Amino acid sequence: MFTLSEENYLKTIYHLGLNSEIGVSTNEIAKKMQTKASSVTDMIKKLSDKNLVVYKKYKGVRITDFGRNTAANIVRKHRLWEVFLVEKLNFSWDEVHEVAEQLEHIKSPKLINELDALLGFPKQDPHGDPIPDKEGNYYPLEKKLLATLGIGEKGICVGVNDSSSSFLQFLDKQKIALGNEIKVLGKEPFDDSIQIQIANRELSISNKIANNLYIKILQGS
Amino acid sequence: MFTLSEENYLKTIYHLGLNSEIGVSTNEIAKKMQTKASSVTDMIKKLSDKNLVVYKKYKGVRITDFGRNTAANIVRKHRLWEVFLVEKLNFSWDEVHEVAEQLEHIKSPKLINELDALLGFPKQDPHGDPIPDKEGNYYPLEKKLLATLGIGEKGICVGVNDSSSSFLQFLDKQKIALGNEIKVLGKEPFDDSIQIQIANRELSISNKIANNLYIKILQGS
DNA sequence: TTATTATTTTAGATAAGACTAAAAATTAAT
DNA sequence: ATTAATTTTTAGTCTTATCTAAAATAATAA
Fold it and tell me: What is the C-alpha separation between B66 and A76, in angstroms, rounded?
């Protein structure tokens, strides 16, 4: 099995490598993990010894199939715990991350499979991010940023781009939650703000907000 | 906050000190934790620096009020998680300990309070051990060993003395569970075995088993 | 293409937690 | 009350994960 530190590095490498064809650089990892490049080099060697990544000096790392699988399993645990915290323990979506960061390292296959069942085999976490299955596969939602919708289009709020707690708290305050139906009523060219209808209320949303909210387009809108 | 290791040592000292007036010895701790006495001495100094125990060289340690409170909180978390695993995730009582050993170190007051509420504020864990409240107080059940009951007495199975997985698995196999009503039908002087009635079945129980099962006496039996 | 800058790695140090072996203190036995 | 046996502590070493400072390599600019 892997240490806490190894799991955290692996997870970071997994996330950073998702949208890039080339290797993940030492500095990128160091910045993301708030640590020093030399520490990253040390850890990369350990992960490489355990066949979780392929490492070529000065060329960054690429995750292996084994590493990807291992990382996806940690992400699966993280996101299932987030669902549990929100659905069963009354956490709000800005409170879940920190606790899930701890819970994701608990080792017990039975625990996580039973938790999955208790929650009804959810496919997304409270931020709309997909939950990998036992094999590490997941199916990202077809989604667009609210800012890219045209006037008259409507959809369901399915996720956030920025999951900083200040943004999530803002959404809570405005009573915008996952699952809400949102319709674009108008767009203001002057400041790129957007007028929307949500749960029978009308709101004006700044461009910055609209660029951080993901919407699943409803058919026939 | 405390490290994983510090918490584990503290918990052991707490348990070993419960039924003794004098200090807990280095060797006792080492034996219980499957480690070496020298490692214990090192750790004791750290716990002492953090005011969790009082340490006098060659005289063992005594837990402080602060230490006792901290330890009781870890025990509280351990036992609440055990209830959760059995009640919500279909674990059997011999499977819960190992996972609870991990979960008890998760840091989040909200998590544990909400979990407590989800479970309906239970007072005992699946082995019948009392769950401390937020202040670290708990109320042990009035209980007797099955072996000490007289013929005709009856009570409810409320706990085990030995919680080794082999014993717990034996109980599972015999369909003896917490909450079952047990009546003593007879005692065999030759081998000190006991005949009991449990859930409309009659069973013969060896003395060794009867010395590891706690019974809450029912009034008027 | 060479010099400059940025990135990455190496070397050496530190802290936590564990170990072994030896020394010191306590307890038990004669 | 000494000696012997046991317990406990100290001293020194090891591993993991981190750091700083310096060296090596790669990328960029003149």
Answer: 37
Please give the average per-residue pLDDT across A80-102, as a whole number.
95
Q: Which domain holds residue B22?
A: 4-63
Query: Which residues in range 6-25 of chain B are in contact with strand D, contact meaning CB within 7 A of any of its atoms?
Result: 25
When CB atoms are compared, the residue of B88, B99, B115 closest to A108 is B99
Q: Could you tell me the CATH number of the domain that includes residue A208? A: 2.30.30.90
Interface predicted TM-score of the whole assembly (ipTM), two decimals: 0.87
Count of CB contacts below 8 A, A vs B?
Answer: 43
- Alpha carbon separation from A208 to A179, A191, A213, B35, B145 (Å, rounded): 20, 10, 9, 56, 67
> A45: domain CATH number?
1.10.10.10
8 A C-beta contact, residue A76 and residue A112: yes
Per-residue pLDDT reduced to its tens digit, A163-215: 888 888 888 888 888 778 899 999 999 998 999 999 889 989 999 999 999 99
CB contact under 8 A, A89 and B111: yes
Q: Which of B44, B63, B82 is the last residue of a domain?
A: B63
Q: Does A208 map to a domain?
A: yes
Question: Mind listing the pLDDT tens digit for each residue in B13-53?
Answer: 999 999 888 899 999 999 999 999 999 999 999 999 999 99
Nucleotide nearest to B8 (CA to C1'): C17
Is residue B148 one of the residues assigned to a domain? yes
Minimum Cα–Cα distance from A103: chain B residue: B106
pLDDT digit string, tens, across residues A105-139: 999 999 999 999 999 999 999 888 899 999 999 98
Contact A89 B106 (CB under 8 A): no
Extract the runs of DSSP E, i.e. beta strands, from chain B.
53-55, 61-63, 144-145, 154-160, 181-188, 193-198, 201-205, 213-217
Residue A219: the pLDDT is: 56
Q: Is the pLDDT of residue A152 over 80?
A: yes
